[in-house]
Amino acid sequence: MLTIQDRLYRAGDRMSRRSFLKAGALGAAGLSLADLLRLRACAGTASRARHKSVIMVLLGGGPSHIDMYDLKPNAPAEFRGEFKPIQTNVPGFDICELMPEQARIADQLALVRNLQMRTSSHNHEEECVSGFLYDRKVPGAQGDPRPAFGSVVSKLRHTDALVPSYVTLSGQHPSEEPYYVGAAHRPFAPSGPDLANLSLPRGLTVERSVDRQALLRALDTIPRSLDAHGQVVGMDTYQARAFEMLSSSRARDAFDILREPDRIRAKYGLTAGVRSYEGQYVIGQQFLTARRLVEAGVSVVTLSVAALGHWDTHDDNFPRLREMLPALDRGVAALVGDLRDRGLDKDVAVVVWGEFGRAPRISTLPGSKKGAGRDHWGNANFALFAGGGFRRGQVIGATDARAERPRGAAVRPQNVLSTLYHHLGIDPATSLLDNAGRPMYLLDDREPIAELL
Predict the structure, then answer these.
(1) CA 196 to chain centre
(2) Which of 163, 245, 262, 378 is most buried per CB count within 10 Å?
């Protein structure tokens, strides 16, 4: 069931779209536009000065921290690897030589070098996406599945129904599930026909779609009392949002990067006819689309940079990184610069990370013909931040001489997510009821990363 505030909020959006045609009363509701705006302000929707968003870049497979953001040039050869560090425009903030674009904008970045994960096993980014591990086969697992960060944000924040609240750009991972917050808060995955479904079929007008919506309500006779997990009610809300998005071109336009000027697309490596590396073109599409989505009002966008290939570099670590890192470098630099140029660097928080780092000691798989690699390593990892109004131009924490473990206290994934919740104005001590009716905190460790705030 929609609350009165939600109905007023949606009515307000419809009124704002039609206000240039009719500035009088809202008809049956008997409310003037001024009355409606006052009611929306009381509901806490119109009073929000600026929309806050998060772009989460997931480097699935486990990115090599020691070859990217925590190089150890003085370590023995079997640890330090093939790449050299380069200085950035921030003293002490050295990164891999293959990432010169980020080196030029390090004053716009904040690097956490003392991130530590609970496991070195692949877990579909569970810790990054929800803050919890729930696979009982994995040491350190923490019980039942928890909803994805984006699903929680969708649940707790009022957003414009004309765009999805939570979008995943690389296909929904198993960890990006809403679980007990409800099906209405599943991420929108614009892959294959899903994006095409944002358009009305040929010959179907908005008026006819409204008639179809009324028919669906009339045909829906499933008793809500039988819906123990709230899935039917969730789908009701999901369906209502879908109809509203269909009636507007705003969501479709947000995904259309061809609306961007050539000079902006060129920053992301989307120059017509130039595809020196296919992954560069696809990652440019993802990063630019993410920027367009948050600018349109989407609260959370995740992308896994799958086009670059998997970051699980057991036996071809150095050749693959030579190919992938320049593409990632350009994407990150283009996104951060674009957000800054548009005045969005305080409103949009960006985090780049993966489910674990790579083993500092170089090894070669038996029988491998691809070359040396690095195995899984959960004891040391990194998280790169930009935007969000965070304190930038700094390195937070450090690892030991071989990048094996943090020196001193470690930052955990829940601290990263707590920082992002803080940016969005959500208290991580908030609790939501699970399917058994038990209150579950958003996070157990609710301390944000103090150096960023």
Answers:
(1) 22
(2) 163
**In DSSP terms, which residues pair with 385 in a beta bridge?**
110, 351
- Beta-bridged to residue 266, according to DSSP, are none
| CATH dotted code for 52-452 | 3.40.720
Neighbouring-strand partners of residue 386: 109, 350
Instruction: Report CA Rg, the chain.
Output: 23
Question: 198: how many CB neighbours lie within 10 A of its CB?
Answer: 21
What pTM does this model have?
Answer: 0.79
pLDDT tens sequence for the chain (453 residues): 444 334 433 444 443 333 333 333 333 344 443 443 344 344 443 334 579 999 999 998 899 999 999 999 999 999 999 999 999 999 999 999 999 999 999 999 999 999 999 887 776 568 999 999 876 566 556 667 899 999 999 999 877 667 889 999 876 666 789 999 998 899 988 865 445 445 444 454 445 544 544 544 454 544 544 444 554 444 455 555 555 555 566 777 888 888 999 999 999 988 765 544 556 677 888 999 999 999 999 999 999 875 555 799 998 899 999 989 998 999 999 999 999 999 999 999 999 999 999 999 999 877 767 789 999 999 999 999 999 999 999 999 999 999 999 999 999 999 999 999 999 999 999 999 999 999 999 999 999 999 999
Give the start-to-end residue ranges of the domains of the chain.
1-47, 52-452
Do residues 66 and 403 make contact, with C-beta atoms less than 8 angstroms apart?
Answer: yes
Q: Which of 102, 167, 116 is nearest to 385 (CA)?
A: 102
Which distant-in-sequence residues (6+ apart) come within 8 Å of 47 by Cβ?
41
CB burial readout 426-436, b (16+ within 10 A) else e: bebebebebee
Structure tokens at 448: 């944000």
